[in-house]
């Protein structure tokens, strides 16, 4: 499994919003500038996150984006599943019930299911708040 640019940039954008969180909305051009990510690319990511109610949007002069929930409530797993379309390590696990004609006799299926479980468990226990605290601890700039 490889996390795409879309997933990585979504996490960077959301961390930026969490780091600069105020009662005001933050313009996408500001996030794009700080993160050195194309504004056009962020617009595609915003659509997915907005639809999933991860972001709040305001249009107009003072418009922009902010987190719809606290950084403690946003997990890396949730964000990556939204942007990546899932975290299944093999294609046969992407649909439930499993549609693979070999699933009843596949000796590897439990291995892949176990791996998917471990991946999801791990990523679902890391929040944006955890990442912010780690950033502050190591004095890392996003």
Describe, in short, the structure shown.
The protein is mainly alpha-helical. The protein has helices at residues 5-19, 28-35, 39-51, 76-84, 109-124, 128-138; strands spanning 55-58, 64-67.
| Unreliable spans | none
The largest β sheet comes out as: 2 strands, antiparallel
- Strand-residue proportion: 5-15%
State the distance separating the first and last CA atoms.
24 Å
Q: What's the total helix number?
A: 6
Strand order across the biggest sheet?
1-2
Measured on Cα atoms, how large is the radius of gyration? 17 Å
Judged by helices, strands and strand pairing, the structural class is: mainly alpha
Helix content: 40-55%
What is the succession of H and E elements? HHHEEHHH
- How many beta-strand segments? 2
Which shape, going by the Cα principal axes? elongated
